[in-house]
Design a protein that fits this description.
This protein is mostly helical. The chain has one domain. It is 73% helix and 0% strand. It is built from four helices and no strands. Helix 1 runs antiparallel to helix 2, helix 1 runs parallel beside helix 3 and helix 3 packs antiparallel against helix 4.
């Protein structure tokens, strides 16, 4: 499952970069980039980076079984749903889809709350949470 998160993250970054290049072409042609394109681009970039981080955090916190599947599925749905709804709703005029933004946002929130729970209920020595075996330098 963490492969899905990491893969979705890297794919999202590639798509975000392609959209960024398209925005550059628009600007180079003397036009303004539509705000909906900028918003979707920014959200996909941030959520894709977070998907990669989640790909490491899920196993580090010991999230397993159906909870792991739920966290992964909910996060990926939100990662693509939020920018997708902006692009489809505003960019392509499918405004009737805009209310589904609450669904995609809710999926992200539930995923984060599950990770919050795992992060505060793990023993302090789990997943690198214990003290270091050396004293860090005072740089």
């Amino acid at each position: 499952m963490t492969r899905a998160l990491k893969g979705s993250g890297f794919l999202g970054l590639a798509v975000m970069m392609a959209v960024g290049l398209h925005q550059f072409v628009i600007v180079a042609g003397g036009s303004a980039v539509p705000p909906w394109m900028i918003g979707g681009h920014a959200h996909l970039g941030v959520l894709s980076i977070l998907a990669i981080v989640m790909g490491f955090a899920v196993p580090a916190l010991g999230v397993t079984g159906t909870t792991r599947t739920a966290v992964t599925g909910l996060f990926i749905a939100g990662q693509w749903g939020i920018p997708g709804i902006v692009w489809l709703g505003e960019g392509f005029g499918l405004t009737f889809l805009m209310p589904t933004g609450f669904l995609w946002g809710g999926a992200l929130i539930v995923s984060m709350l599950i990770m919050f729970y795992y992060s505060v209920t793990q023993p302090s020595d789990a997943a690198g949470g214990g003290s270091a075996s050396f004293a860090p330098g005072d740089d």
